[in-house]
Design a protein that fits this description.
With about 300 residues, the protein is of the alpha+beta class. The chain has seven helices and ten strands. Strands 1, 2, 3, 4, 5, 6, 7, 8, 9 and 10 form a ten-stranded mixed sheet that branches. Helix 4 packs across helix 5.
């Protein structure tokens, strides 16, 4: 969920009657050459590149708010963001009605396709439903971690998105151990510390599957802490290699801080592959639930 410091109220959208129009953007990117999602001074970030392009298009400062702030080197196939655009700026940018066969914002999608570098794409843009917030309305996020144990490493076409793993692992042992982590827990051992932020999360899925030399670890939760997915994968790999056992993994849930017993898996294998939202009439209620900071007393 969120910490008090995370509960920054984004600019309200007031629809088409004046004020601001909230837009939903679906985004994909290759994170290799980005220093993560969030804007950082002197660093190339996904948010920084998108904010700059949208600010140019609308002629006014635009700030993107994402469903998940991915780390440096992490990719996305289905990132979701929202932006609040002044109604007059939207009217200036689109004074004409789109072609009858075009979605409303198809011209903007095409324009951004020409402006942005090849490692980030805006796939779709729509008017957001009332109460929609890309981050706080989300029910869950889905990630896949991809790695290969092939003796030659990873095929060139996959080299930016799949981690080459030099040792064999027991995928069944990883899957069995991972099931112990499902549910509502304090995942402090798997998260880099952030002052004031809660590390209590509901882990809803943790599957490990093999197809030949390729291994996929599929992880879903209501939200993730900083470095949490890569840390979960790193701990599972320690079990899969036989360096640690399932009891050790379960014991990490009792740790009050990030554990030094294992290393987080490399960023390149991790991709955000989906974000789930409730029906439109439940968006506002979901936002209220998400903003309610969890405490250790809630962990069963």
């Amino acid at each position: 969920m969120t910490s008090p410091s995370d509960n920054v109220v984004s600019m309200p959208a007031t629809g088409n009657g004046g004020g601001f129009v909230r837009l939903r953007l679906d985004i994909a990117y290759d994170g290799t050459d980005f220093a993560g999602w969030a804007t950082q001074a002197g660093q190339r970030t996904v948010a920084g590149v998108l904010d700059e392009a949208l600010t140019t298009v609308f002629g006014t400062p635009i700030v993107t708010r994402a469903a998940g702030r991915t780390d440096s080197g992490v990719h996305a196939e289905a990132q979701v963001v929202h932006v609040d655009v002044p109604h007059d700026a939207l009217s200036r940018a689109y004074p004409r009605t789109p072609r009858p066969d075009d979605p409303e914002f198809a011209p903007l999608v095409r324009r951004l396709g020409r402006m942005l570098t090849q490692d980030v794409r805006v796939l779709d843009i729509v008017r957001a439903a009332p109460g929609f917030d890309a981050r706080f309305s989300a029910l869950r996020r889905h990630y896949i971690y991809r790695l290969s144990t092939a003796p030659y490493g990873v095929e060139p076409r996959d080299a930016r998105f799949v981690t080459a793993w030099p040792r064999e692992v027991d995928v069944e042992a990883m899957a069995e151990a991972g099931r112990q982590l499902l549910g509502l827990h304090d995942f402090a051992a798997f998260c880099r510390h952030r002052e004031g932020a809660t590390t209590i999360r509901e882990l809803q899925r943790l599957d490990c599957v093999r197809d030949g030399d390729r291994i996929e670890i599929r992880v879903s939760a209501d939200a993730f802490c900083w470095n949490m997915v890569r840390s979960l994968v790193g701990a599972l790999l320690a079990v899969g290699e036989g360096r640690r056992d399932a009891e050790w993994l379960r014991g990490l849930l009792e740790a009050p801080r990030r554990s030094s017993d294992f290393a987080a898996a490399p960023a390149r294998g991790l991709t955000l592959v989906g974000v789930d939202y409730p029906p439109d009439d439940e968006l506002a209620a979901r936002t209220l639930v998400t903003r309610d900071v969890r405490t250790p007393d809630e962990v069963g």
